[in-house]
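Case study B.
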Amino acid sequence: QVQLVQSGAEVKKPGASVKVSCKASGYTFTSYGISWVRQAPGQGLEWMGWISAYNGNTNYAQKLQGRVTMTTDTSTSTAYMELRSLRSDDTAVYYCARTMIVVVTPDYWGQGTLVTVSS
Amino acid sequence: QSVLTQPPSASGTPGQRVTISCSGSSSNIGSNTVNWYQQLPGTAPKLLIYSNNQRPSGVPDRFSGSKSGTSASLAISGLQSEDEADYYCAAWDDSLDYVFGTGTKVTVL
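Model:
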């Protein structure tokens, strides 16, 4: 069965960086992409971008351009999302989601990683 | 900020049919397909409907989706207590962002 297991909760200070991992299993990693979506406390879903595990191509949300980097390690079927220059409004649960490439659609989701930004 | 607008809440009694609307524009729903996600309390979202009206394997046929012009809708027929959740529509925008709706909380009375 498809599983996406994310790294644990993080607490960061404003201005720092965070890197969240997402280990995939149960499917051929390079046949899909990985999207990252975040959800601030009590708020809706916000798409951050996605990366093709097939060729490494990325597409980042305009709002986060320059602050976010998404990468994959095909040898371990793991995706990573790094967010830099953290601010308090980056406090959120961060989700990774397997993403169909042909019709770019996030389908299976990880359990989420809480990132708290606080001084 | 979300560019797809949904009603904040919807409700019904068990067995009823509930419909959730999702309003967008020509740059998103008007030119791309719509997906729907269900988020049960305290859990990750789950894909419910993709490509306007397709159900992934395992999703009950009580859930159905449709699209017309720049709007889409999700219908839940035979409402059950376990359907109490937040529901989000989503679509690609021509700006190359994947945009989510504002979300609708469904309550089973």
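DSSP finds no helices and nine strands in chain B. The remaining cases will be described in the next quarterly update.
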